[in-house]
Design goal:
Elements: E1 15-16, E2 25-29, H1 34-45, E3 49-54, H2 57-63, E4 70-73, H3 79-86, E5 91-94, H4 107-124, E6 129-133, H5 145-159, E7 163-169, E8 172-173, H6 179-189, E9 193-197, E10 203-204, E11 207-208, H7 209-221, E12 228-232, E13 238-239, H8 240-251, E14 256-260, H9 262-275, H10 283-286, H11 300-304, H12 324-330
Parallel strand pairs: 1-4, 2-3, 2-5, 3-4, 5-6, 6-7, 7-12, 8-11, 9-14
Antiparallel strand pairs: 10-13
The structure holds NADP nicotinamide-adenine-dinucleotide phosphate.
């Protein structure tokens, strides 16, 4: 928690520690992440006082530059961070999670146990409202550890006596995303042939991060979203092949798309995982590229009064800035 004192790391419009008047304060976990930065902007625009929980103050200051928020710096696996996070707030927006396991951070510890502990911290502090970011396909019965960790976390949320709302998005795209950006980096790193894991037939329903952020802000504002769960998918279901074709179109390039079974890619990814500190894909996530990820219904948008942005070359213009050098550096 030492970095809490590092005022020099904060943007000029940032405030350290909890605000003096905590009425109407929303705390956002995972605020420096991809969805978090967009969610914070949407919440501030709606007039909420926003407290953010971040692990790395300096990086968070860059990510959240220009958004007036109050910082709590710490790891949410620590009880002290959790109690600092929820003290005096009206609402918790819980986004913090990991999609790739790194040293000392397992899916179960971060995605599941940390969520259960945060629910307890919220209850202990008398906070009722809990907006939770789950994942389409999350299930305690999933054979995939990542989806299982998110599924068990969601069960903790639903079993609690809090006023919860759960979001279950398909893959989220927008500047700063991981999924689509990684596919685009692999385009730069595969000059002629582009391997399609599992044949590229799995179907996804990519949803814009702006729409997800507005959905979160709508849930925070609206009591009728309490104890409701919302699948979030974009307006089109696309196969992985179709997504990559649109990505190639947005990047103004082409590749020969070659179907490759997941079983063939697995040992290659396993080696890449040993070589690169930040591999683009892990063996744990590889199987998910061959798994359908479309949502059961799209009624959330009408209910929440939020638009649904298509996955078009125009919306993917942010991929054009990816270079071979950037793609290579990202893995280190
Ligand atoms: N992106 C998608 O396509 C997608 C799709 C469906 C659901 N979701 C869900 O949406 C949520 C946000 O995802 P995202 O894409 O924004 O992920 P992200 O960019 O990786 O952000 C996650 C944030 O959580 C923080 N975090 C992780 N462990 C923490 C800990 N122990 N203590 C405090 N903070 C911690 C990370 O902090 P550091 O910056 O310090 O690492 C990071 O800022 C997640 O729950 C994810 O499962 C995402």
């Amino acid at each position: 928690m030492e970095e809490f004192e590092r005022e020099d790391a904060m943007p000029p419009d940032a405030k350290l520690g909890p605000p003096a008047d905590a009425r109407g304060t929303v705390v956002v976990t995972g605020a420096a992440g991809f969805v978090g930065t967009h969610a914070c902007r949407a919440l501030v625009q709606q007039g909420w006082t926003v407290r953010v929980v971040v692990r790395r103050a300096q990086r968070a200051a860059q990510q959240l530059a220009g958004i007036p928020v109050h910082y709590v710096v710490g790891d949410l696996r620590q009880a002290a961070t959790r109690s600092d996070a929820v003290r005096g707030v009206t609402t918790v927006v819980h986004l913090a999670a990991i999609a790739i396991e790194r040293a000392g951070q397992s899916y179960e510890e971060v995605n599941t146990n940390m969520t259960a502990a945060l629910i307890e911290a919220a209850r202990a502090a008398g906070v009722r409202r809990f907006v939770h970011m789950s994942q389409n396909g999350a299930s305690s019965a999933s054979p995939h550890r990542f989806l299982r960790s998110k599924g068990v976390a969601e069960e903790h949320v639903r079993a609690s006596d809090l006023d919860w709302t759960v979001f279950r998005p398909s893959v989220i795209f927008g500047r700063g995303d991981e999924f689509v950006t990684v596919l685009a980096r692999l385009v730069r790193l595969s000059p002629v042939i582009y391997p399609l894991p599992g044949g590229g037939t799995a179907r996804f329903q990519p949803v814009s991060v702006t729409d997800v952020a507005h959905a979160i802000a709508a849930a925070v504002r609206r009591p009728d979203t309490v104890r409701q769960s919302y699948p979030l998918g974009g307006p089109e279901a696309l196969t992985l092949r179709e997504m990559i074709e649109r990505i190639l179109g947005a990047m103004g390039t082409s590749r020969i798309l070659v179907p490759v079974p997941v079983t063939v890619l697995r040992p290659i990814i396993a080696i890449a995982q040993r070589v690169f500190p930040r591999p683009p894909v892990t063996t744990a996530l590889l199987g998910l590229l061959a798994l359908d990820n479309t949502v059961p219904d799209s009624t959330a948008w009408a209910t929440l009064g939020v638009g649904s942005t298509p996955f078009t070359a125009g919306e993917l213009a942010y991929l054009r800035s990816i270079t071979v050098r950037e793609a290579w550096t990202a893995m280190w």
